[in-house]
TrEMBL record:
Organism, as annotated: Naja naja (Indian cobra)
SUPFAM superfamilies linked to this entry: ARM repeat
Name recorded for this polypeptide: Armadillo like helical domain containing 2
Name of the coding gene: ARMH2
One Pfam match: ARMH2
């Protein structure tokens, strides 16, 4: 299992001290014993320790996310890492990440943010909201749908000339599909505030080259919205 690592007793104790989580040896399950006698080495499964690791790391990155003295790109990277930890850490990690969604959204609405910062935060939110209706609705409460639509409408004239702007819009489309999955309230809201403008934006982006992506998420979002089918979507 990729989520299980093996440590010697002394190595694990040192690791736990470095991570600042104290002595968690009582939470570890013996995995197997190699060798015999006093020189035998005991290895452990980290199955019970793994959630502790995720929660601890989320809180560490959250301090960076909220540290206004750090460069904005470093804060955006923290948002990405929180998302990855929430995605891989199970229900508990996902629930813990809920309280940091507003901080991520706040970065998205800052003026003159770089495309790199925007993409990092969009990636983080995509992971935090993936198959997590609680976090999806928390993001909606902080006006994420309106922000995503405003991103699609930005720099429309220069989008073709600036690949970075296009990439931001691709990530917006992906995040839109994430929050709409099994969440009809998002689809209704996008219809209400997006109207025909959203339909045209998605149709335009769906005709672009999505090389390197598993699928064309503008097309997928177009289908989610129930817009009239064209030859491109049949």
């Amino acid at each position: 299992d990729q989520f299980l690592q093996r440590y010697r007793v002394k190595d694990f104790s040192a690791h736990s001290r470095r991570e600042g989580i104290g002595n968690v040896s009582d939470e570890i399950v013996p995995f197997f014993q190699k060798g015999k006698g006093k020189e035998g080495e005991i290895f452990f499964s980290l199955a019970k320790f793994y959630p502790v690791f995720h929660h601890h790391k989320i809180k560490i990155y959250a301090m960076d996310l909220r540290n206004t003295e750090l460069p904005l790109e470093e804060r955006a990277k923290a948002a990405l890492y929180i998302g990855l930890l929430a995605y891989t850490g199970g229900v508990g990690a996902g629930n813990l990440s809920t309280q940091y969604i507003q901080d991520m959204v706040d970065i998205l609405i800052m003026p003159d943010t770089s495309t790199k910062v925007r993409i990092l935060v969009l990636k983080g939110l995509s992971s935090v909201c993936y198959i997590n209706p609680v976090n999806q609705n928390e993001a909606k409460a902080h006006h994420l749908p309106e922000i995503l639509l405003s991103y699609l409408e930005e720099d429309e004239d220069s989008a073709e000339a600036d690949p970075d702007v296009v990439l931001v819009k691709f990530w917006v489309c992906y995040l839109m599909t994430v929050v709409c999955c099994n969440n009809m309230s998002y689809i209704r809201l996008f219809h209400e505030i997006g109207g025909q403008t959203l339909e045209k934006r998605l149709e335009y982006l769906s005709n672009m080259e999505w090389f390197g992506w598993p699928q064309n998420y503008a097309t997928l979002m177009y289908i989610f919205m129930g817009y009239p089918s064209t030859e491109a979507y049949k």
